[in-house]
Amino acid sequence: MLRRGLAVVGLLLVSLCVNAQSGYYPDALWQRKTPAEAGINAALLKGAIDFAVASESRNPRDLTLNHYQTFGREPFGSAIGPIKDRGDQTGVVVYKGYIVAEWGEPSRVDMTHSVTKSLLSSVVGVAYDRGMIRSLDDAVKDYVAPIQLYETSELLSLFETPHNRTITWNHLLRQTSDWEGTLWGKPDWADRPSAKPGEWLTRPRNKAGSVYKYNDVRVNVLALAALNLWRRPLPQVLKETIMDPIGASSTWRWFGYENSWIVLDGSPVQSVSGGGHWGGGMFINAYDMATTATASFFRARRQAPSRISATAPTSCTSTRTTTWWRSRAGSSAARSTSS
Prior knowledge:
Blueprint: E1 8-13, H1 17-20, H2 35-38, H3 42-54, H4 63-69, E2 90-95, E3 98-103, E4 110-111, H5 116-129, E5 147-149, E6 155-156, H6 169-173, E7 182-183, E8 186-187, H7 216-230, H8 234-243, E9 253-264, E10 267-272, E11 281-284, H9 286-298, E12 331-335
Parallel strand pairs: 1-2
Antiparallel strand pairs: 1-12, 2-3, 4-11, 5-6, 5-9, 7-8, 9-10, 9-11
Helix pairs in contact: 5-7, 5-8
């Protein structure tokens, strides 16, 4: 869940989706305008920024401590990925492709937690664009071979139970799969468990596609399935197909867990996480967050004629249909979260 007052804010403001596709698109070097030059009420903009700065989360900036005060108290809640303390409130405001305000340290790299899911869905979207996924309604089991865990002979089969065999890419992207199992030492039921421990292992399994449940274990299943689909580390795929073409910096990093290593085509490869629930996920600065948000609204990659897939955020709608973070029509918040 998005939280208020967070460490890094990359806030993209556009007037209407139709205008977002026809105006100036920034290159690797941002251009700036004053609020007056952009036709924005400077007093109202300052009030919004002051509110953001004053609304910092009350949770500690020591995010390791914060973890063990929150998700770390869940069953199997120990952190297994890197965690970075957050700094002062920071952000940029982009209007029609121009930076009209910035504060704090926009170049500082911070955790973005579940905003990572937006980039994971984009990587899957590129695979769909390239025909690597024939249909999003295909069963994922038909694309993923048995997986060898690193430094062991153990094989991991993600989609072999009767229920898991019915799960499609669409179900994983929309978090309606109800995937069952344990991945990277985390059982599916242990993420945000219900208040009824007696039902953790005995509740009826929901038909895939019928019930939405926010669950990082299942998002990590999507990341591992995508890794096996691409047969390449997902950070490399993201860099080459999205981040470099849209002009992002080289300072972002996408981490997995200390135990999320597999053997892929004879080489050890880390499977990245889809958030910072147990550490890891995307670490990125505010400028790059604004760049990815801008790309989603302009619906095109800079220096390339191809468009980011509809699986990623290309539609100017008011709903969050896959794992892309969206807000109301005409705006998008790309920011660090505590999920």
